[in-house]
Amino acid sequence: MTPTEPAARGAAAPTAVRPPLPVKMVIAGGFGVGKTTTVGSISEIRPLTTEAAITEVAAGVDDLSHTPHKTTTTVAMDFGCITIDSTLKLYLFGTPGQDRFGFMWDDLVEGALGGLVIVDTRRLDDCYAAVDYFEHKGIPFAVAVNAFDGRVEHALDEVRWALDIAEQVPVFTYDARERGSVRDALLVVLELALARAQG
Amino acid sequence: MAAGDTPVGEEARPGRPDDPVGRAPAVRPFLVTAGRVAGARSGPPIPVETQVVTTAAGVTALDGLSFEAHDIVALCRQPQSLAEIAAKLRLHLNVVRVLAEDLRSEGHLSVYVPNADLAQDISVLRRVIDGLRTIPDSRGALRDTD
Ligand SMILES: Nc1nc2c(ncn2[C@@H]2O[C@H](COP(=O)(O)OP(=O)(O)O)[C@@H](O)[C@H]2O)c(=O)[nH]1
Ligand SMILES: [Mg+2]
User: Fold this and answer.
1) What's the gap in Å between the CA of B141 and the closest CA on chain A?
2) Dihedral sign computed on CA atoms, order A26, A29, A32, A33
3) Highest taxon of the source (chain B) (predicted)?
4) Model pTM?
5) Which structural domain, as residue segments, surrounds residue A192?
6) Lesser CB count within 10 Å: N end or C end of chain A?
7) Between chains, do B132 and A183 touch, taking CB under 8 Å as contact?
8) B38 to chain A, minimum CA–CA distance in Å?
9) pLDDT digits (tens, 9 = 90+) for A70-95
10) What domain count does chain A have?
11) Whole-angstrom Cα distance, residue B101 to residue A75?
12) Closest partner residue to B22 among A3, A49, A194, by Cβ?
């Protein structure tokens, strides 16, 4: 089986409609940094929102039991998509970057081509968790500073220093409202992913 | 539950912007899935981008299905990701995972789980890169250069 031919589970023959191969990228960052705006700028559908039930990490996850008092929270994630061609579709998932959403992150990020961490330089703290997460998981990622109204409060090397970002991780400014700017930001991540896959 | 109120099928048409879909209400997953939630079973959950397509048997069975099962089978006459099903029918992702698995085992749906190592597949990455490069800058944006 080649990677481009996912197996259909189940005995029933599929209908004539064959779905595209789905791939995904994750757009992460704190609240209000421009995740939904980013997705919406390039998605061919208006971003959809779904809520995933997550188990609070602190509650301790036991896969084998149904503990009625397990603490669950819902977290919203916005997503959109780009049809690359009839056989390949890219999904973009925007998700909050806070620590306590770790459970959902694993669920979401598994198999992602890469991640884009969005930063608002007025609130740098909000993106630590996302940076740590991608680093820890070894997922190719870049840090994109959303230049609200063209203003960036910190120089890029200050951002890199403040977030303690490794040298090989790209840090750049972009505009979440500009499709071309979002496209180029995604391409930076994908080029990293390609270089890593080739390496 | 909102799912029963949501018209399905029409919004699945590709190439047309979907209507905005609000956040799912704080639903009670246990009601819909008879106490089971995905993730409470062994193995990793199927990915959110997993594609789901109604089978010929599912189309035939559609009239006999009700509630969420009906809505999912109707919606997936056009391929949908798990995430799209959840958003459009306002169901929680884990509820959709369980229902999709049930409907698959009943032969109403085909569930295409993407291969886990796609993310490192050079040809897939190249195709995504080449595809993205063809996307033009925003049309109608207030800028007149490139
Ligand atoms: N001026 C300006 N506003 C932006 C920009 N990006 C996002 N916004 C606004 O900031 C707010 C939060 O953006 P949103 O994409 O919803 O953030 P999210 O919480 O990360 O999804 C919204 O009102 C956006 O319209 C930007 O680049 N410039
Ligand atoms: Mg948002």
Assistant:
1) 8
2) negative
3) Bacteria
4) 0.81
5) 29-198
6) C
7) yes
8) 10
9) 566 667 889 999 999 999 999 999 98
10) 1
11) 23
12) A49
